[in-house]
Amino acid sequence: MRTDSTRQLAGWSSARLVVVDERGRTPVVRDGDTATLTTRPTEGDSPPEGAVLLGEADGVAYWAVRGAADPAADDDPADWQDLRMVGAALDPLGAGLLTTAVAVLTWHEQSRFCARDGSPTRVGNAGWHRVCEAAGHEEYPRTDPAVICLVHDGGDRVLLARQPTWPPGRFSVLAGFVEAGESLEACVQREIQEEVGVAVRDVRYLGSQAWPFPRSLMVGFHALADPDQPLVPADGEIAEARWVTRAELRTALDVGDWAGRPGDAQPLLLPGRVSIARSMLDAWAALD
């Protein structure tokens, strides 16, 4: 579809637009714990410059464009929410559309010039590549792999850490970006050693999640570690680290997401449901 301009034009009049503002927000309709994307009809005879084809579902093409709330058209700015706020409440189609839209639109804005010679680039393939105007080099949306790992002792304790920018009590599992020439498993071992001074073993894959902030792919693992090792938080990266029992984790999960309790003095606040970190903790806490 990305190279079939005839098909794109034929489906444009019935297509729907996912409009995303510069802060990554889009209009949604909330209904309790669920949310639905509010898409817009298309205008004109063809996709505008910079529009990104997201794909088709049930015979309807979806495109992503930059835009903003329009109060003159009864567009309520309060309905505009970003992935962190609403991602976990969207259905699979809505979550996939918004995640892709945020990722690719952001890439375009950061890739206006060729990485090889600095020449301006132009959009091609319905928004899925850019072409260097000077030499014709093609560039595609970047994805930066990062590992995220649930470290446990093989029993009922899990290792959590807090970044310096987080308020006291807010903890999550450890994560870090993959370096050049490094395998995912090697990255897990290096990052955990660097961040909290702990050696891990038996590194095993769990799952992955697109994380377009701005262009990451979170690759989830779990690994074993000896809880008797001293914890040495990396200066400037980790404010504190601690081992948490399964019972403590279950209690914290019952409290709810950290994003929903600003200023609440809870002893352990955990990631929201939108993140793979929360899925990993939920699954580990559910084990007998």
From TrEMBL:
Molecular function via GO: hydrolase activity
Domain of life: Bacteria
Domain Nudix hydrolase: 141-266
Keywords: Hydrolase, Magnesium, Metal-binding, NAD
Documented EC number(s): 3.6.1.22
Annotated spans, Disordered: 29-49
Transmembrane segments: none
Family: Belongs to the Nudix hydrolase family. NudC subfamily.
Protein name per its UniProtKB record: NAD(+) diphosphatase
Gene name per UniProt: nudC
